[in-house]
Amino acid sequence: MRLALIVANSKYEDPTLSKLTAPAADALALGELLRDTQIGGFDDVQILQDIPYFQVQRAIADFFADKLPDDLLLFYFSGHGLLDLQGRLYLGVQDTLCNRLSVTSLSSSFIKDEMENSLSKRQVLIMDCCYSGAFERGTKGQIGKLAIHEATFGGRGRIVLTASDKTQYAWEGNRVIGETKNSLYTHYMIEGLKSGSADLNGDGQITPDELYEYIYTKIIVATPNQKPRKIVYDQQGEIVIARNPHAHQRSSGTGNIYTDKIFRSANETGIVSIFPTRYGKFDGTSVIDAISQEMLVERSQIRLVGISLGDYFLDRGVLHSSFMKLLEALGNQATKPLIRALLVHPKSETLRERARWESGSEYFQEPAFFDSTTFIETDGAVRIAKRLCEKYGAILEVRLYRQAPTAFVLLTSRFAFIEAYNYAGRGSNVPIFQVQADASLYRYYESHFERIWSVSEPISAYNPHGSLEKR
Prior knowledge:
eight-stranded mixed sheet; alpha/beta
């Protein structure tokens, strides 16, 4: 059985607990997705909104009792998380009193005991709380204090996902996501489930790990002060929270023998997505979104080939703020991936060839103009990259190549994004392929990158006023 219990609290009798606008909307939206047979497929979803402590406590006890080992139990809580003077965690409900937490709120020890006593070995706890968010400035609400420890919900066979693990404000309201009525954390959780974007490996299923990675990458870009957390307690086997509602569009038959042949060929070659252009979307996701998400979850190394670092491998001579945010986010991670980038040398013959291809007959009327314009564009990109290397030298290394690669490429440990542009056409109107790391096409471009890297020069040696020596 697949069972879910959703507890959401917006209104509180204690005047020191601020009213929250998000939980009610969160509960209804999440419940709808979990019930949807095309997404969550849960057999039963119980939603409790703004009810007293004793009713919530009984509902939680009933939810975890009398279950089988293979039953999937998903418990979601949205509301205030409160710490007592000893630092113990409590979850606030309608009649919670801050000066009587032990007898009017849900203690983490109670929830832990109920989970521990359950026979189910497949348990998922999701907490979208703003710890101490109700306290006014100057009172006992201490920002930055650890709210959830490894032992808080310790046990076997469970996964805990939290919006944050410290006393920080996890609620962003309308200031961050326009007119959204969901919290930031649950907003992205619902987005990932409903669109299927949280299906990171493209297998049609969304696991807790994938859901966490999707939400994490979204949140740390939107609000770096909020750090979601995942804790796994001896979980055996894979848990699937939801199905990707759009997965069938990628792999199922269409009835057309030519279309089905294309699907089979794509699957066999490791292609999981084909973006129509740099700016087009696949299943509602742009290639920039896909690359940004993939780079943020990478913990090993990232390799890219292009003209500038702006918008990752896009052909732009300016630095976009998104790449700066990415470097800041990666630099703050405990495990930092190394980014190795190959950019074209501004004085390479490759650029003159590119200008001739893109300008056509106009080039021969004013070749100096097109050559100088191309140089200015790429020289600016290299100068910016050089400054970034000086600032982010621990995670960023750039070299300059002289000969045109066969494609613009970005490689992570899981995927390759390949654009077979090759300077041969005006603009960027060619598709971009997302390929799995176990595919031969990935290995080809991985080898291609390393060959170019081995003969390229460090960006620190770049001199815009010098001549380019032949090799």
